[in-house]
Design a protein that fits this description.
Layout lengths: L1 H20 L12 H21 L2 H5 L2 E8 L6 E2 L1 H12 L5 E11 L5 E13 L6 E14 L5 E10 L12
Parallel strand pairs: 1-6
Antiparallel strand pairs: 1-2, 3-4, 4-5, 5-6
Length: 173
Amino acid sequence: MKSLILLCGTAAMALAMTACNQAPAPAAATPDTRDADTKAISDNESQWNSDWAAKDADKLAAHYADDAVLMAPGMEPLKGRDAIRSGLSGMTSDKALSLKFKASKVEVSKSGDVAYTQGDYQMTMTDPATHKVMNDHGTYVTTYRKQGDGSWKAVADIATSSVPPGPPTKHKM
């Protein structure tokens, strides 16, 4: 009887020690969707170029998140989708307007919730001061955030002109 008790006690201790030493179950790995996300963002920027060609301020503004900021040369930052839509409405009424951009780099975070693109742009528009058509080119960086529906929206969009600024305007006193 003593040996049965000793055997049961030893088995119970061995089971308890084995249970304590077990490796935790591996956490469910999040799938790496960076390739699909990179394609989705590239496709989005292609559509965005088409929307610029159509000069549709509503479609252009739809590429931005509600809390986005647009920073472009020669203008104050536009904060929020409504302000961006309003600012773009003025631009799209310009008959000379043309804007094309192309990303040379698309980076998506491993977590798959934020990304950025950087590249070059070319723009033609009417100078509001001189009323002459001007050409601009430069670089841009756009930061994206994945939305609840899986789409990507711009949250920070900044363009930097490579064209030197013109001479300062003279103000009458």
